[in-house]
Amino acid sequence: MALLPVSDALDRLLKAPALTRVEMVDLHDAMGRVLASDVAARVTHPAFDNSAMDGYAGHHEDFAEIGTELSVIGESAAGRGFSGPVGRGEVVRIFTGAPVPAGADTVLIQEDAEKLPDNRIRTTFALEKGRHIRPKGQDFTAGDVVLRAGDVLDAGRLTVAAGMNHPQLPVLARPKVAILATGDELLPPGSIPGPDQIIASNTYGVAAIARDNGAGIVDLGIARDDKTAISNAVAKAKAAGADILVTLGGASVGDHDLVQSTLVENGMVLDFWQIAMRPGKPLMVGSLDGMIVLGLPGNPVSSLVCSLLFLEPLLRHLGSLPPRDRSAKAYTLTPLPENDKRQDYVRARLSRSSDGSLQTETFSRQDSSMMQVFAQSDCLIIRPPHASALDAGKLCDIMVLR
């Protein structure tokens, strides 16, 4: 099978239809979720004319001239309004958010009123009609559609949802990602490795990328290089209702690489395998009983790069989240050699020059097993297939990591 260009592989992966499952969630659990349908207000806001300031509510004719003396006949506070009407020559002491009494149409702020004896005030500022009053329904009225299907819920949208009297919202279900690490040599973190054993690390980085893009995680643990063990893990992924099965390692065709063959025996239809990229060439994509199968390489950096390039956009597509654009340009501080037929993703640091432009410097070692280098990288320099050598100081394309 010929190596597939990165862009072609991504195009084929994103042909999967977006998820349409809907669930109701409490507002506290809705941050970052995608609305499944339009949401209309159940109440009117404000529910009544109310004061925008602390002051005195009265008739605008009484506030039209400076020096008018008025009688204070009562008080209106939030949650405890004044029950009677306000006549000419009268005002009601009013506080922010309190109902405007019947007959009043303007609020004189307290700084513009001089207190006099016997519950009277004198105006020190002239006002136009309606000043400092928030009219009923100024924000929205019952029945108004305020939030739309496809909106990503954030602090502002959750606030208005609560204000519309919705304790729960209909949202699209999160894509569910089942992650399976494979290999006789792998042990979970916290273990004491024996001879020829290593600590499994890929699951945690891949899961973090998945969660950061709206997914729920099913950790299938570590399966030995054994077809029965792998098949049992696949059965668990199906039972959990996974939308995506991510396997880590074992997707090649060596004597100990059993993932691809076992998945095919379990009914997987292989879409494509092996990508013209470095790191990450052994990427595998298929479908199995409604699950998308994404077979990632076993090397930590390869699995992370492939997750950013393929799993992240796939999850955002399935979950109807807007695409995340990590692309940018920077001046390379390191000469870049001519490239071969595979697209390179070179680990590098980012900084700012004195004029504020981005500049990047590659790490001297690029081995795909070196987790520390990736952890210290701020970006990946993208070197297209057959790219010419690039001198230091030239612009290059980058993929921003942080």
Can you walk through the features of this model?
By secondary structure, the chain is an alpha/beta fold. A hairpin with a 2-residue loop joins strand 20 and strand 21. Helix content is 18%, strand content 30%. The strands form 7 sheets. It has a 6-stranded mixed sheet with strand order 7-4-6-5-9-8, with no helix packed on it. It has a 6-stranded mixed sheet with strand order 16-13-17-21-20-18, with helices on both faces. It starts with 5 loop residues before the first helix and ends with a strand. The chain has helices at 6-13, 155-163, 202-212, 227-239, 259-265, 300-318, 371-376, and strands at 22-26, 39-40, 50-51, 55-58, 69-76, 90-94, 106-109, 113-116, 120-123, 133-134, 145-147, 168-172, 176-182, 186-187, 198-199, 216-223, 244-248, 269-273, 277-278, 284-288, 291-296, 327-332, 343-352, 358-362, 379-383, 395-400. It has 7 helices and 26 strands.
